[in-house]
Amino acid sequence: MTDSIDRWPCGLLSLDPGGRIVAVNRSLGDGLGYLAEELLGQSIDRLLPAGSRIFFHAHLQPLLAVKGQVAEVYLPLKTRHGETLPMLVNATSVAEGEGHRSDCAFFPTTMRARYEERLLAAKCEAESERSRNAALAERIAVMREQLRQSLAHTLHESLAQEIGSLKWRLEALHAGAAAAGTESANELAELARTAGATLERVRRLSYELHPLELQQLGLRAATQRCARALAAGTGVAVEVVGGDPLPAARDAASLVLFRVVEEALRNALGHARASRVTVEIGHDAGTIMATVRDDGIGMCAGTPDEPGSLGLLEIRQRLASVGGALALRTAPGRGCTLEARIPRAVPEPGVAAGPGRASVSSTG
Amino acid sequence: MQDSPIRRHHVQISGDPRAPALLFAHGFGCDQRVWRFVAPAFEPDHRVVLFDHLGSGRSSPDAYSPTRHATLQGYADDVVELIERLGLRDVVFVGHSVGSTIGLLASLKNRGAFSRLVLLAPSPCYLNFPPDYFGGFERSELEELLRLIERNDLAWASFLAPVVMKNGERPELREELQQSFCSMEPGVAHRFAAATFLSDHRGELEGVRVPSLIMQCRDDSVAPPQVGEYLHRHLAGSTLRRLAATGHCPHMSHPEETVDVIRDYLREAAMAA
Q1: What pLDDT, in 10s, does the model give residues B157-169?
Q2: Who wins on pLDDT, B251 or A211?
Q3: Number of domains chain A is built from
Q4: Of the residues A60, A80, A108, which one is the last residue of a structural domain?
Q5: In chain B, how many domains are there?
Q6: Are A321 and A349 in contact (CB under 8 A)?
Q7: Considering B9, B26, B69, B248, which one is annotated as catalytic?
Q8: pLDDT tens across A242-251, in order?
Q9: By the 8 A CB rule, do B103 and B113 touch?
Q10: Phi, psi of B199 (to 5 degrees)
Q11: Which residue has the higher pLDDT, B270 or A312?
């Protein structure tokens, strides 16, 4: 090496095709505790700790041979005393005779390596935190569904029946009073009507908490009823098309898909200013899917936070929990299409196997 | 076609379609383009098939499975599937480094598919198990390699988040990554390296029935000579050839010798048959 290059503030090294050192500058020798002359003719392996050695031979050398150059590769070197020095290397491959010579420039990166280490640790921590959060969110979603299901069941099976029998007895009393011409007849009729209205409200509440017919009649029927209920009084035409992908819809996937459609409908009917909404339920060999299409203002980026609203973020999360994915297509003034897909063979999280379902399916 | 193994593995076929098939499997940290100096020499009298392992080169990113490809068995299943889908028979399998281990494992899964195995710089186990076996490395050294790969992944990860890669929302990034030789997606390299360098496939060797050629390089600091000898002792019907070529990638550094040795072996094999 010429005198000036010898002292340049980076390590310079040339290797022959066999990986032997044919030139090295003094800066590199000094940094590693060698006289430059000692290194000439030695294999590069002498300067490579084991990890670097494999990485160099299995990855870097072929890369150099084909691409001609590599840049900013992290490749620690080993000092004479066996210490490892973090280094970045840039290298080029130069044709020479029949083979190729590799010219390498090494930059010590001790400080930077420390930052990177912290960055890497922070990244790992963030990742494990994220998976913990996702697991927690999933657990909460499952527990909420179980709670809703069991509330819906109690409302539907016991409260509704008690109010139903109350209504029936009031009607019988009213019939008796009316026949006898008693003056309480009118009041009894009014009470029976109130009981009937309460019964209807309890049933609707039960349905809103959990669509029991999802288990009993399947996804399509449940979606149809949900669409009718949500569209009532809005003046928006909602159509449900497509065949039922899961006739015996007793798994977590159909509940997740139902919730996604419900949320998309809420959004389309409440915020998108649509006049027409189409829900399509379908399936192919490996996937069940639901598409909700509206002709609104093109807003499907999610509903504002409101009680009972799942929001787009949670939709994505719940779809992901059963291996599914969400696709949105929208443009201002051109409506919105939301498509949810779930693979058929999905791992069933707790909601399907939990006690809530058992109690519901026993009534179904 | 989206799902065909041919597309998944970016299979490239050349040479004589009626001639015996030569299937080339690249090693860790590379892709099929490492065979560029060797494969063309076989085109006149072979059907030459090149492919990328899933997660490497220009294979379909969606086909890579972190669970299936957590072990070399998953890669071997891929090879068997590929051979069956291509309708290849009596395949001469040429594998480099971990590619050769994958070939050994594949030959146990479909015994009839292979006629010969050519193993370049192979090693069934990189770990030392003193006093009986010296793969060349201590566990701590191989863990150091994994950290090194992770570190070099960091550069990718900072702007090519795995999410971006999977969602395909920015196909140009994936394109860019795939164009670059020997690149792997973030995380894939690390997992492949762990499957390669921390596994021990010595136990499977005794079951291999396909005759093989072990090509042992001089001064190979990844697969040292004693490993080649160990393989020779434990692989029935194996031939050990010590090359003049140095290093770990003779197909790149010494393509002529590599071609000659494979040719000689296949010629002798044909004469013996």
Answers
A1: 443 334 334 444 4
A2: B251
A3: 3
A4: A108
A5: 1
A6: yes
A7: B248
A8: 876 554 444 6
A9: no
A10: -95, 165
A11: B270
